[in-house]
Amino acid sequence: MEQDLSGQVFEALSPDERVSLCRRMADEASELAKRASPNFRAAYTILAIEWLMLADEIARAAMGAI
Question: Can you give the pTM of this predicted structure?
Fold first, then answer.
């Protein structure tokens, strides 16, 4: 996945787009964890969890802004 993840680009996205991107990044990290060596598996798994947590937080904040 080729994606420009600069802060400016991320902030320009709508909350729904941010949530979607975070979930896609979590999926990518999960897939990498499955194929990673034991040295990196835990790190990729943690990244996936963190991306999902960020997606959830963005979604909650967006709901509060309605």
Answer: 0.85
